[in-house]
Amino acid sequence: MDATARFGVEQKNGRTSFFDGGLFELIFWSLLGGIVTVLSLGLLYPWVLCRLFAWKINHTVIDGKRLNFSGSAVGLFGNWIKWWALTIITLGIYGFWVSIKLEDWKTKNTHFVN
After folding, report:
1. Which sign, positive or negative, has the C-alpha torsion 16, 19, 21, 22?
2. What gap in Å lies between CA 72 and CA 91, rounded to an integer?
3. Closest CA to 106 of 56, 65, 61
4. Helix, strand, or coil here: 77?
5. What are the residue ranges of helices labelled H in 3-111?
């Protein structure tokens, strides 16, 4: 038994950092997300983002430790409304910070499993 396996470190092809998501899952979540966003007129876009974030993050292993995404669409939705209100109030200027705020929210809700 290899030393890394003894300590619960995940490996794939001898590497301890890898992504193990599949193409068909990505296609599924992307198509479903696009359909849901269009049918809801954008109202469910935070749910779509959470599903895509969860898929990418939950399939990522860094230094043998799997990541887990714990964010919820409800949690993002409140921020989303606030960010859009600030963007409207500032005549679009705050929009430049929305992607940074979204990254910060995503990182805040990302943790190591083990």
Report:
1. negative
2. 28
3. 56
4. helix
5. 3-6, 23-39, 45-58, 73-89, 95-108
> Going by DSSP bridges, is the β-strand pair 65-69/60-62 parallel, antiparallel, or unpaired?
antiparallel
The position carrying tokens 């705020």 is 101
Q: Using CA atoms, how far apart are residues 32 and 79, in angstroms rounded to an integer?
A: 23
User: What are the Cα distances from residue 57, in Å, to 5, 14, 23, 61?
Assistant: 22, 20, 15, 8
CA angle 4, 2, 21 (to 5 degrees): 55
Structure tokens at 52: 């895509």
The 10s digit of each residue's pLDDT in 56-85 is: 999 999 999 999 999 999 999 999 999 999
DSSP state of 60: E
Q: What's the pTM?
A: 0.84
